[in-house]
Each structure stands twice: as structure tokens, then as C-alpha cells.
Amino acid sequence: MIVAGFGFRKGTALSSLRAALALAQEGHEPVRWLTTAQDKAEGLLPLAEAMSLPLVALSPEALTAAETQTRSAASFAARGTGSVAEACALAAAGPGARLLRPRQISPDRMATCAIAQGPST
């Protein structure tokens, strides 16, 4: 299963989410679902609806359990993880998941997206 994990700022436009996804997904299979932190799910819903993809909202505990490649001090201070996008992608893809691409940042720096693959694919 190919999963796109997102981190983004409040008020992020759909175009920023799309841009981050396009950068992260470049050269990879299409994603099967989108994921983000529970308290951010409403902001990702427009992209999920536009792409007709399921959206998985993750608990704070799921985010802190994932081992990320990126080590953002700001992300760690706010969320207890080095990258919300990477943690979401890895947690949603399941045990044994691996990052296909670490977080990519939208050109306006409002959104990040990382792609993970679960062991079932």
C-alpha cells in the first residue's frame, strides 16, 4: 500500500497540498490513501475528496512512535516527531513500512508530504 503523509500549517490552500504531493509522488506509483494528524484531518479533506481517496487521521501516539528520516526541531517541539509527514506516512502504511521519499516541501512552505510503502505491496 502506497500512502501519502502530510504535515501543514493552519489555513493551507488545496494548491499547496497538491504541490507537496506532486513533489513527493514524482516517479512513484499513485498513492492509495492520504493521512495526517487527527487535529489536521479537516484541512486535508478537500484533497482527499478531490482525489477520491480515503483519509486516515492518526493519533498523537502513532506519530511519536514512527522513526523519521527528517529531524525538524520545530516539528519535534510541536508534535514529538522529526517530521509529521513522514511519521504519518510510516504509521499509516503499517509495521515494516519504509519511506519511498522523505518529506517534500511545497514551494510556498505551507505543506509537506512524504510517501511510504507498506509491506503488503
UniProtKB/TrEMBL annotation:
Family matches, as SUPFAM superfamilies: CobE/GbiG C-terminal domain-like
Residues of the CobE/GbiG C-terminal domain: 2-116
One family name in Pfam for this protein: CbiG_C
Transmembrane segments: none
Coiled coil: none
InterPro entries listed in its UniProt record: CobE/GbiG_C, CobE/GbiG_C_sf
Protein name, entry field: Cobalamin biosynthesis protein
Organism of provenance: Novosphingobium kalidii
Lineage of source species: Bacteria, Pseudomonadati, Pseudomonadota, Alphaproteobacteria, Sphingomonadales
